[in-house]
Amino acid sequence: MTLPTTAAPKPAAPRVNPLQRIWLREIGMERLWMRPAPAAARPVVVPQVPVSKPVSAPEPAPVMAAAEAAPVHVAPSVAPSTAPAPAVPVAAAGSPPAVGAAVASTRANGRPGIPASILNRTGPPPRPAPKAAEDEAAEAPRIPVAEAVKNANLDELREQVVACTACGLCDGRRHAVFGQGATPTRWLVVGEAPGEQEDRQGHPFVGRSGQLLDAMLAAVGMSRDADVFITNVIKCRPPGNRNPKPEEIAACSPYLMRQIALLKPERILVLGRFAAQTLLGTDATIGSLRGRVHSLKTDEGAEIPVIVSYHPAYLLRSPSEKARAWQDLKLASRKA
Ligand code: SF4
Predict the structure, then answer these.
(1) Which residue segment(s) compose the domain that 179 sits in?
(2) Which atom of ligand 1 is nearest to the CA of 165?
């Protein structure tokens, strides 16, 4: 028997079992039936794409977080339209879309998506400039207090103190306390720093300490309004009335030095340990400093007598020391 031959591709041979194969051999058709099928007729082998998450329960892709974590490759979505579209593997058809695809489809739909500036970048997001750097750039250069006070008169000096931010004490103050009294003056009375009441009112030595000081001055024929100018080493109140820090003293001292240079007092009465040690530049105790006349040499070359005594606040706590304070006042009143 002759089988018809044709140029057309033959259909793939069906699968046969051993008995069928024996029977085909018997009838002489085994070679025809068992010939390998043409390539086009071979079964399609579908590449398996690994799926990292179960297809049945896809989680919504955190688009922003993923875009931050890794560069997003959007090249496939902008490939020329003439290129053949890659076949979608069957195994991957139901899996969640990759981040790049999700972003691309969102953008293709015309809906708001991730801005191109974020999509195209490969590094971390740019950080805004630190605020501190902006503030520093905006700040005008500071003039040191010692330089600023050099040519100031008393009114200008007062304005400088009121606006001063040369040390941290400016943060918590209500008022910077410049000082108060007669100009010109006979005595300059110098205390430590404003207390709570001074900070509230903006004047030195108010409250009970101020009343006691006025009484002491009156005892030697002096008055706050006519004869003395009262101020402090530090012009702003330290929090909780703590001792001023060395850097605060250094920042504020030029104001006192300029006050002395402008007022040219006959005497300086220093009240309390801290003020005495600061003005005289010593660590000596107040007990060893009082009872004698010291001398302060100014930048202009003048020498001003300095008398040390107790602070009125201390005398209120220790009334027995008032007798010594009285001796100090008499020493200060003595003619040179
Ligand atoms: S304490 Fe003196 S230096 Fe400090 S802010 Fe007040 S005025 Fe300025």
Answers:
(1) 145-333
(2) 5
